[in-house]
Amino acid sequence: MKTRRTSGASNGPSNAPFDRWFRYPAGFSRPTLNTALQTASLKPGDLLIDPFLGAASGYREGVARGIQYAGLEVHPEIAELAQLKMSTLPRPQRIVDDAKLVSQETRQADTTRETELVSRSFDRHVLQKLVGIRNELQTRPRKGTGRYLKWCLLGALRDCANVQVRWPYQRPRVARRPRIAHPDRAFLRRAEWMAEDLQHATNPVARVLQGDARRLDHWKRVLGGRTADAIVTSPPYLNNFDYADATRLELYFWGIARTWSEMVTRVRADMLTATTQQARKAAAEESMYRLARMAPHTASTLGAIIDKLQRERTLRVRGKEYDRVIGPYFEGMSRVFKNARRCSRPQARVVIVIGDSAPYGIHVNTPAILAALALELGFQLVGLEEIRQRGTRWLQNGTRHERLLSEQLLVLETPSTQ
């Protein structure tokens, strides 16, 4: 197997069609996605499933080649965004027309009931306008364009913020100059992008579902009775990135959640465990027990890593519980692999973009461990190759960054008989 080496972070450029609607972190870069699609050996008319779809970054290029898509994304708001990207809209210019009407009809709104995070992220007059647009959209939703306009507004929030709101953390105590000072301008700019992108795009054959990749019934629902010809995906990395918390500004602003506990219950509860925020001792022990029954060799490898992480944690005051993330993560991925076997044709390619990590300086070679896990579950290994180095910005930032990390392309095949 030969792959092309790529560079840059695993998310698309901010001005790329469709990806520019909303800047969601950790999506596929276009070179990486193109490499993955080529490796999957897909033909026009083939059905591909991505069980960790995210915001569907870059997938419209595959649509242009005639590939059909099914996707699962557990984050409810990001799943909605992916659905919009993989949908069609008669006369996309309606998005711009309705956005202009909304801006004209919006009045300055009362902001006294906004959450602290939202209130501290904007100048007062900017927030009044943003809340006014939101209230107009929520009280008088536009038929056909309402969800598009919602994402025009949510995509504009970080442009208009006067504090640090870069991914993955919002830092309302750190001031910055807004990229766009006028909410109307930021709102309309995204409406124009959406209309332009939809106007010039090939109509997709796609189904996107808010769903959990660990659940077989969700795979069956999104596939609609078909079997997948290939799987291309990039699951969460074991790098302690909290995808729910990363979108907290948007969740709080739109009213999906108003508190941390609501965010956890309504958004993060069903996500694959990949951060210490999700770590629980009982869940970690139960996961390792189940994994040992399915894949004893992999469980033994993980047990040694967990022991090292436990020892390191005890040497630190309030050390992070990295050891309690390992079991749930890999046990969860074992369920994803099982679903992939059951829902794909024999000898289907499974292409996974995944990176390693080094919490407390202890190397967790996630790509190699996933390869070993897949072999124990009956897959064939086609190849495992590095596609880029990562983490070079933080080499001097503590023991966990002393090891140079990488992103790798893991290629598997489902068995010839299922």
Class inferred from helices and paired strands: alpha/beta
What is the N-to-C succession of helices and strands? HEHEHHHHHEEHEHEHHHHHHEHEE
How is the main sheet built? 7 strands, mixed
Beta-strand percentage range: 5-15%
Strand order of the largest sheet: 5-2-1-6-7-9-8
Shape: globular
Query: What are the segments in which pLDDT stays under 50 over at least 5 consecutive residues?
Result: 7-13
Cα separation of the termini: 24 Å
> How many individual helices?
16
Helicity, as a percent range: 40-55%
Question: How big is the Rg?
Answer: 22 Å
**Number of strand elements:** 9
The overall pLDDT average reads: 92
What does this structure look like?
The chain has 16 helices and 9 strands. With 418 residues, it is of the alpha/beta class. The chain has a 7-stranded mixed sheet, sandwiched between helices. Strands 3-4 form a two-stranded antiparallel sheet. α14 runs antiparallel to α16 (366-376). The longest helix is centred in the C-terminal third of the chain and has 21 residues, at 323-343. Mean pLDDT is 92; it is low at 7-13.
